[in-house]
Amino acid sequence: MNETTHLGKRRRIIDGYEKVTGTAHYTADLSLAGMLHARPVLSLYPHARIRSIDAEAARAMPGVVAVLTGPDLNRGRVAHSRPSMLLAEDVVVFAGQPVAVVVATSEAKAADAASLLDIDYEVLEHVEDAEQALQDEVFVWPQGVPVAGGSMASLHGGDAGERGEAKISNIDQSRVFERGDVQAALAQAHAVVERRYTNAWVHQSYMEPHAVVAQPGGRPGQVTVYTSTQGQYAVRSEVARTLGLRERDVRIEPMTVGGGFGAKYGIIDSLVAAVALQVRRPVRMVLSRSEDMLTTMPAPGTRIQVKLGADAEGQLVALDVQVVIENGAFSFGHAGIIATMIGGMYRCANVRIQTQEVLTHRAPTGAYRAPGVPQALFALESSIDELARTLGQDPLDLRYQNAVGAGDLTGTGQPWPDIGFKACLEQARAHPIWRKRGERPNEGVGVAAGGWPGAFSPAGAVCRVDTDGTVRLHVGSVDISGVHSSMVLIAAETLGVDPDTVEIVQGTTDSGPFAPASGGSQITISLSGAVLEASTQVRNQLLDLAAGHFEAHREDVELVEGQARVKGVPGNTIGIGQLAQLSQRQAGGPGPVVAEGRAAIKAGAPGFTVQFVRVHVDPDTALVTPLEAVSIQDVGYALNPLLVEGQMHGGTAQGLSMGMYEGLHFAGGTLTNPNYLEYVFPRASDLPPIEAIIVEHPSEHGPFGARIVGEPPITAGAAAVANAVRDAAGVRVTELPVTSEALWRLMQDRN
Amino acid sequence: MNETTHLGKRRRIIDGYEKVTGTAHYTADLSLAGMLHARPVLSLYPHARIRSIDAEAARAMPGVVAVLTGPDLNRGRVAHSRPSMLLAEDVVVFAGQPVAVVVATSEAKAADAASLLDIDYEVLEHVEDAEQALQDEVFVWPQGVPVAGGSMASLHGGDAGERGEAKISNIDQSRVFERGDVQAALAQAHAVVERRYTNAWVHQSYMEPHAVVAQPGGRPGQVTVYTSTQGQYAVRSEVARTLGLRERDVRIEPMTVGGGFGAKYGIIDSLVAAVALQVRRPVRMVLSRSEDMLTTMPAPGTRIQVKLGADAEGQLVALDVQVVIENGAFSFGHAGIIATMIGGMYRCANVRIQTQEVLTHRAPTGAYRAPGVPQALFALESSIDELARTLGQDPLDLRYQNAVGAGDLTGTGQPWPDIGFKACLEQARAHPIWRKRGERPNEGVGVAAGGWPGAFSPAGAVCRVDTDGTVRLHVGSVDISGVHSSMVLIAAETLGVDPDTVEIVQGTTDSGPFAPASGGSQITISLSGAVLEASTQVRNQLLDLAAGHFEAHREDVELVEGQARVKGVPGNTIGIGQLAQLSQRQAGGPGPVVAEGRAAIKAGAPGFTVQFVRVHVDPDTALVTPLEAVSIQDVGYALNPLLVEGQMHGGTAQGLSMGMYEGLHFAGGTLTNPNYLEYVFPRASDLPPIEAIIVEHPSEHGPFGARIVGEPPITAGAAAVANAVRDAAGVRVTELPVTSEALWRLMQDRN
C-alpha cells in the first residue's frame, strides 16, 4: 500500500451509536399494520409419532386467529434440512422440532393458547448419540434420509463432497481423503502419538434470538421477509425453494443482526413466511432464548482419533485420522472442511482422513464460525503438542519446521496459495509469554495454531455522490462484523473524503446489488473489489466534472477533503456535492454522479493464527483460571486495525470458551440446559485479557493485500487451553470443555 | 425506430393488479411501531392575530401526547412558501392555515382533542381577491413578502423569472415580455379582437389526500419521511431546508401515490417531520378531504386581457396581453410559463405580455398539470376563435397558417425545437367531427390547441439480472402516470426478455439513483436514456457471458425470449438467469450482472395538442351537454400507446372539467366548498367519450423520438368548450367554468 489517509487506520465502527443508544432497529422492533404474533409449539420428545393434536381449547381463546399444524403448511413437501422443516407431520425427529404454530393478536395471547394445545404423542425409541447411531440398530430415518439438490455447507466455503449411495443408515456420509501410504509411514516412524478427542455440542450463542416478520405481498404468492440474517440472497433461495415460490416473489429485507456466527441463514424464515401466506396477514415470530436453543442448529460434537508420526528430525511422516461427526437429524456436511484443515496445517506426505457424518435424534447441526475447525484442531494441535513432548522438541519449533506454505497441500489435496502461517509462528517465538513460560508453579502456557481457507465470491456495489457531498455506497451485504465500516474507508480513501460523509445503503434482495452472505470470512475480500471499482469510477466522474468546471486538464485536478481543486491552486475549490449538483442539473451533461462496480476475487486469501493461553490450575481443586491470552493473526493488510482486533478478540474469546466452558447437555435425547443460567457462557470477567497481534503478510489476491479475518481466531483457542493445562498440570485433556471435575480425575489418576 | 418486439406496443400498466385489488400500500396504510397520530387545527379566518391558544382541555384528554403550536416548532424560522409553513405564529394569513397540531395515540383521540382547542383570534381586515389586492390598501404582508433563495416553479419546468425590488405591496412580481412594437402593429392591423377572460381557482383533486408518516432516525436530527410525493429528492431538500437539517439526515421513502397532478411536492411533510422530531415518536398525519382542500395549494385564478390583431390575409401581427395571476398568500411564479405559451403558440412579430403576480389572503397557490397554461390558452384560443370569425376564416386554417414550428419563438423569446403542432392540425382538419360540424341545431363544435415545453433533467438507473432470470430496474423516480411501465418495455426490448420478467425497484433518497421529480412531463424522457444505457450495458455483459459459455464469438450470440443462443443454433440455449448465476458464482469472473446508466437529455421535446369538443346547448336552460371530444396529440413516439392514451384521456377530462364544472368558491376569504359534495367534479358519466389520436412526429432529442406526454392534453379543453359553446349558442363565454346560469344570461342579452 502507498501512503494512506484513512485505510489501515484505527477508526470506530460506523453503527456503534445506534447500537449503544438502542435506536438500531432489530427484527423484534418491527411492527407492521395488522401484524399478528406467532408462537411455535415444540416437540417434547426426540422421536415420537403424533397421534393427534387437539387445538379446540387454543382456538377458542380470545385473540387467537389460527392454530396451524403440519398438514396446513407442508402441502406434501418433504424437509431435507433444518431450514426446510416447517412443522412436523406424523413423526417428530428431535426434541425442539416445531409441531404447531399458534397465531394471535398479541404474543401473550399466542403463548397462552399454545399452552392449551393437547398433543398426543406415541413415544418411539430414539438415537441418543454417535455411539448408538453407529450401531445402526435404531434409525433416525427408518425410510432413508430425505435429500435435496443443494448443500448448505457450500454457503460457508466448505467442501460438501458427494453423498454416498442411498441406504437405510444413520451414517449419512462416509468419505476418505488419502495421499501416500499412511500405514507404511506409521510403521517406519521414529515417534508416534495417538489419542481420541471428543467435544461437546455448543451453541452459537448470539445475543439476538432468531426473529422473523413475514408479510404477504401485493399479489398471490408474494411475500416479504424481514429477518435477522447473514445473507438475504441465501434466505431468499431457501424460502422460495421450501415454499415452492418463485424467487422473484420472495423479497428479503435484512435487519440489524444481533450476532450470527454462522447460524443466521434463515432457520425459521420459511416457517414464518408460510404462516403469513396462510393467514394473509403480517406475522412476527421472535424465539425465546429457550426455544432458540432447542430448535435452531448448534455446532456438532466430534470424536476424532489422531495417529501422528514423525521421523527423528521432527519431520511429520504420517497422519491418520478418523472423524465421527455427531449430527442431529440432518448433517450439515462438516467433513470436507474438517479434512481440509486437519490435514492441511502441516506438510506430510502420508495422510489418511476418514470421516463419517452420523445422525441422531437431536436438532440438526449447522455452521458456527469456522465450522468444525476448532474441534478438528483441538485434536490435531493437542497431538502436535504431545508429539513435541515425545520428541523432546519445542512445540513452536516443531510447528515451524512442518508448517505449510505456498504450494503445500490442504487435507483435501488442494495447494495453498501464499500464506502467513510461518510469519505468525515467527512472531510467536519472539513473544515474552513464550520466552518466560515455566517460571511460575501451577501455571502453564499452551500454544496452538489455526486457520481458515476462506470462501470468496463475486459481488457488486453502487457508489453515488449526493448534492450535499454525501457519498452513498449501496451494497447487498449484511454487516455482522464491521465489514461496512471498512467499505466506508475504501470509498473515503478513493474519493478523498472524510469517512463520516460516506453512508452505507443496505440493499434488499430487490434493490441489490448482489453480494455473498457474510459467512465463511468472505465478505470483506469479496466486496472490497466492487466498492473500489465503483468508487474509482465515481472518482473519475468527479475529476471530469471538476476539470470542466475549472477549465483545466483532468490530470491537473485532485480531490482533497471532499473538495476538487487544481493542483497547486489550493484556494480555489469546489465541493464534490456541488459537482454532483451541477451534474444533476446540467441538461446535456453526463448525468448524475453514480457508478456500479462488479468484481470477482481471483482466488482465496487464507488466514492463519497462532495463539497462546496462560492458565493457572489449582492443584487441589483442578480449577483452571485463564490468566492471559495472546492471539497472533496474519490478516494480510488490516483495512481498519481496530475492527480487526475486535474480530480477533471475539473469536479468541469463543475459542477459549469452547475450551473451558461451553457445552449443550442432553439427557434422554432432550437438551437439558437451553438457557443462559445453565448453559455455561463466560462473562467478560471469566475471560483473561487478550492481546491481539496483527501480522501483515499480504495476500496476492485479497484487496490491498487483505486476507480473511473472521474465522481464524476461533480455531486455536480450545487446543491452546488443553495444551496450557497439559503444561500446568501435566495431564492431557482429550474432552472439551475442560471441566474441573474431569481434570481433577485425570490429575488423581496421574498421582 | 426499427422493428420492435415490445416497445411501441399496447401493454397494460405494471401496477394495475395491486391498485385494483387494494393491496397497493399507500402512506395511510403505514403503521409503525409506537406510531402516534396527528391532527392539524386549521385557521377559521383568512387574516387574524392569534391572541392565545388554550390547550389545557385538549392536553387533559386521555391518549393525547402533545399539543404543539407555532413556537414549539418554528424556532424562529420564517416561512416563505406553503411547504415551509409549519404552524402559524402570531398571525394567520389564510383560512385553512395550520395553527396547531394535536398528537395522540389514535386518530380519533387526536381529532377529539383538537376540537377542544380554544384559540382566541383577533380578526383582521383581509384581502379577498385580485381586484382588492391590486388596490394595495389592505396588505397581505404588511411587513413585506417573506422570500427565500429557491423557487418552486423551477421544479415544474417553468421560468421563475426575477423578483422585483422589495416593497410593501400585494403585487408580488411584475414582468414584461416584449418583442416588436405592439402599439404600432395594433394600430395598423386589419382586424383586432379584444376581450378579458377570467377563471375560477380549481383544485388538483387527486383521489388520495396528502398523507405523511415521519419517523425520527437513529441519531439526533435524523428523520425518515414516508410520503405520497411526486419527487423524493425535492421533498428531501424542502424538509432539510425548512427544518435546518442536513440533507443526508433526511430520508424520504416515496409511497404509492393516489394522484399528484403537481400538488405532491411535500406540502405537509416538513410539518409532520417537525412534529415527529419534537415528540420523538413516529407520527402519521392523513388529511381529511376538507382539510386537504383548505390547506394545500390549489391552482390560481387569472384575469387575462387579450388584444389580438391580424392583417387581411390572416397573418397575426400583434398580441397584447395583460395577465393578473390571483395567488394566495404566496405566489408560485406562474407568470413565466403563462407568457411562454400564450405568446408562443403562433408566429407574431409584435408581442407584449405584462404579468402581475398578486397576493390575497387565501391558501398559497401551486402547480396543477401544465400550471397556468389551461387558463392562458383559454384566453388565447378563445381570441383566435373570435379572430377567425372576424376575418371570416376557418379557425383551423387560421391556426395552421400561424402555428409555430422549429425556430419560431416562445412568448419569452426562446426558439422552439422541431415540434409537431402543424402535424396535429393536419390530423385535425381531416377529422369527421370537424368536417361534419354545423349539421345539427343547438350543437356546436369547438377547437382549441395547446402544448407544453416540458422540462428535462439528468437521471440515473441501475439494471441487474437475478439468478432466476428476473431483470430489476432500480430507479429514483416516482410513478404517477405509468412511466415505470414504459421503462420496463425499454429494458425488455434491449435485453430480449418478456416485460413480465422485468421488475421495478423503487429507490428512496438513500438508495437512489437520482432521478428528477415526476412533474413537468419530464420523467419519461429524462429517465429513458439512463434505463437504456444501463440495459445496454447489461446486454453486453450477458453476451460476453454467453459467448464464454458457448465458446463462440460475441457477435454470433443473440438474446431471445430470456435465453442466450448462438445465431442459427436455436436448440442450444441458456437462460439469462443461469448466466447471472454462473457469473455470481464464478471466482475470478467478471462479477454479478449489474450496470448503471446515467444520462442527461440534450434538449426538450415539447408536445402539442389539438382538441375538439362537440356540445349541445339547451336554448331554454343553457344546459351544456358535452357529446364528444377528440384529443389529437403529438407524442413523438408512443413507447406504450395504451398508457399514452390513458394520459390523453385523463388530461383531456381535466381540461373539459375546468371548462365546464370546477371552481373553488370563496366567501369572506374562506373556501365554502371544500368537499366533493359541493366542489363540482365530473363523474365518468358527466364526461363525453374521448377519442385519443396519437401523432408521432419524432423528437430529435427524446428517447426513440418520444416527446413529453403528460401535460399537453389538459391545456386545450377549457378553450375548446368555450369555442364549442360559441358555435352552438352564438355567445362568447369569457369566464370559467361555463355555468348554465352565466351562459343563460349571455344568451338572454344577445336575444
UniProtKB/TrEMBL annotation, chains A, B:
Source domain of life: Bacteria
Keywords for this protein: Molybdenum, Oxidoreductase, Plasmid
Protein known as: Xanthine dehydrogenase family protein molybdopterin-binding subunit
Annotated InterPro entries: Ald_Oxase/Xan_DH_a/b (IPR000674), Ald_Oxase/Xan_DH_a/b_sf (IPR036856), Ald_Oxase/xanthine_DH-like (IPR016208), AldOxase/xan_DH_MoCoBD1 (IPR008274), AldOxase/xan_DH_MoCoBD2 (IPR046867), AldOxase/xan_DH_Mopterin-bd_sf (IPR037165)
SUPFAM superfamilies: CO dehydrogenase molybdoprotein N-domain-like, Molybdenum cofactor-binding domain
Keyword Oxidoreductase: yes
Cofactor: Mo-molybdopterin cytosine dinucleotide
Sections of the chain in a coiled coil: none
GO molecular function, one term: iron ion binding
Organism ancestry: Bacteria, Thermotogati, Deinococcota, Deinococci, Deinococcales
Occurrences of domain Aldehyde oxidase/xanthine dehydrogenase a/b hammerhead (ranges): 21-125
Keyword Kinase: no
Annotated Gene3D superfamilies: Aldehyde oxidase/xanthine dehydrogenase, a/b hammerhead, Aldehyde oxidase/xanthine dehydrogenase, molybdopterin binding domain
